[in-house]
Here is the input.
Amino acid sequence: MDALPPFDVVRPRSLDEVIVARAAHGESRLLGGGTDLVVNIRRGIVAPPVLIDINGVPELRTIKADASAIEIGAAVTLAEVAAHPGVARHYLVVAEAAGHIAGPTHRNMGTVGGNLCLDTRCIYYNQSEWWRAANRHCLKTTGTVCHVAPKSRSVCFATFSGDLAPALLVFDAEIDIAGPAGRRTLPLADLYIGYARQDEPVTQTRGDGKYFLALRPGEFVTAVRAKNTPGLRSAYDKIRIRRSIEYPVTGVAVALRRDGDTLADLRVAFTGTNPRPVRLSGTAALCGGPLDARVLAGLDALVRDQIMAMKTTFTPGHYRRRVAGVLARRLVQRLFEVAY
Amino acid sequence: MARLLSLTLNGRARTDAVSDNVLLLDYLREIVGLTGTKTGCDGGECGACTVLVDDRPLLSCLTLAARAEGRRVDTIESLAVDGRLSAVQRGFHEKLGSQCGYCTPGFIMASAGLLRRNPRPSEDEIREALGSNICRCTGYVKIIEAVQHAAKLCADGLSP
Ligand SMILES: Cc1cc2nc3c(=O)[nH]c(=O)nc-3n(C[C@H](O)[C@H](O)[C@H](O)COP(=O)(O)OP(=O)(O)OC[C@H]3O[C@@H](n4cnc5c(N)ncnc54)[C@H](O)[C@@H]3O)c2cc1C
Ligand code: SF4
Ligand code: FES
Ligand code: FES
Here is the structure.
């Protein structure tokens, strides 16, 4: 018996061919490294009839990074990002995030586009067909309830856990999208619509763990890019159950600027907590003075307000939220103190 | 859809009719009949299925066979020449880097990939390069010693 259900693979050689293939096959999925998609196909979570393998498209395989800007094509691998000298030199947080995803062999396969569009995860979702059927499935697939929040009334809380998104969000990155209606560019933050508010219905602009990307039918990501901000120091840190082959319990990206003894700019973003990567809002109010107890308490309060604590992973939600706060605080202190 | 897949497998060019939905792992084991590459977790979590594609370690359980088109694929069967073990194989044998052996082909291919691009790795570099592989038996210490030993054998002229 075949391990995977039948599907056809299309292997376009140019960006235009990808657009045509995507328009021709409505139910198709893009295939990057397959480290997420192939697992989900094997578990019967998704069953696309056509996969569009974008690894042979030269326009999607370019990477540029220098003191002024960074631009990475969707089919560049995580290993290539982590090893790129310009990324490591000017966008350390991006290199660190890419270099600590899954394990080294996974990073030879996994792509930037696949990482940014990584499916959200949940202990009731990332399971075999048999396991999910025994539990009568859930909202994110074919079921009618959410097992994490049975009273949620049609809201899914599955967690976004890609590591690159927070690292790019602290640079206010933008994402280039192509589709049947042409090209468009969005702030990366607007790609992610997994707000998952219990008190709000899921809409096209404010979704949940199931509808978590702002991509329209037939659209896909071609590149991500950002401008540098002079004087920013940045770094990435995350906690995992074990240090390799494992999704983050929580990952945090921090970028800050120090002027003498003053914290002049502070940007913090998380993954592994909510149905979207979260760029913490309200950090500007913490800037303008020294990095003292008031700032750290303020940071903690922002984390408590904006970081979700739903039990979608093996670690309890409140533990994840505390880890998020501790990681952010430590990283902010470290970056403030280092001689640059 | 089935189509012809042409690649260089363990140094030899070959062509097979392969369906689009066949994994590289199943192509190697079921179609070619090379069962040295192991199926462990089936889902990218153990590294038992590691093979080299153009010298880079990949997980064959998550790679479609079609992606090997035109490429060089090396499995554990490619390493020994005329019954003489390669440096990494000797390292694992002589330093007891293998116990039940199930994880061993994956560890050896990941190690061979490392030594092909970095013939003199530090201990940290070895640990890092083997970070996608899991072993239930050895406790890893012997595996690291095996790769260190293999690096010495390479310096004496053996191929990884
Ligand atoms: C054991 C294990 C551990 C892991 N640990 C981590 C971790 O620590 N951190 C982490 O971030 N990830 C982790 N991952 C997930 C994964 O390996 C990475 O996120 C990887 O970058 C995914 O990229 P890919 O190219 O393999 O994605 P694919 O599987 O090819 O695609 C993922 C999804 O994105 C879609 N897609 C792909 N490219 C595009 C595009 N250009 N535009 C629109 N949609 C697209 C696909 O259709 C699919 O839905 C882990 C995976 C495994 C198996
Ligand atoms: S959060 Fe609820 S609906 Fe979403 S995947 Fe988990 S159990 Fe399913
Ligand atoms: S069988 Fe491929 S990683 Fe486990
Ligand atoms: S030797 Fe048994 S799993 Fe590694």
